[in-house]
Each structure stands twice: as C-alpha cells, then as structure tokens.
Write a structure and sequence with these properties.
By secondary structure, this protein is of the alpha+beta class. The protein is built from three helices and three strands. The structure holds zinc ion (ZN).
C-alpha cells in the first residue's frame, strides 16, 4: 500500500498528522497534533481554500466592490462582507484604543 505524506497547512509538519473523519462534503479531514488544527487537502467550498480571504482584502484595497469580488472569487456575498469587517477590526484596533484613551481621560 502506498503511503502519502500529508503536510499540515498551518505549520508544514508531516509527522504528527492523523486522519480525523470526513467533512459534510465527504472530503477526508486531517488533524495536526502539533498545532491542534484541522484541515483538508482540497475543499469544495471556495472560501475555505487557503489564501482566498487574503485575496478578498487585497481586492477591496485595490478598488473592487463587494459584487466584483463575489463574481471573481466565486464566494458568497456574506463571506466577503464578514471577512472585510473582521479585517477592518483587526487593522483599526490600535486606532480605536488611541482615540478612546484620548476621549475618556
Ligand atoms: Zn500543524
């Protein structure tokens, strides 16, 4: 029987990766014992594929609208809005904290 080395998508580890059931779309799921995260080798859902969320943020920075992004990347409109909201919270956190400390003192 041929052995296939599965590489963890997050930490590139090959030794401590075990099979961990199936997804709803019948794809094999794996668990990495080192970083304790789950992943699949290929996804049916486009939004789950590695690098797509970064691409959504990049497209919005370069002037694409939400509907442009939906059409090009073939993800849901709610996914695009959620990713943009989360990224703006992450990027503006220090800005809000700075303003808050100015107003409250
Ligand atoms: Zn890992």
């Amino acid at each position: 029987m041929a052995k296939i080395d599965v590489k963890c998508r997050y930490c590139n580890n090959t030794e401590e990766v075990i099979k961990s059931g199936y997804s709803i779309s019948k794809q094999q799921r794996y668990q990495c014992k080192r970083c304790n995260r789950y992943f699949q080798l290929d996804y049916i859902n486009n939004a789950s594929k590695p690098g797509v969320k970064e691409q959504i943020v990049e497209m919005s920075i370069n002037g694409s609208g939400v509907r442009d992004t939906v059409r090009v990347l073939k993800v849901g409109i709610n996914t695009v809005i959620r990713v943009l909201k989360k990224s703006s919270i992450k990027n503006n956190k220090s800005f809000y904290q700075y303003n808050r400390s100015n107003y409250c003192s």
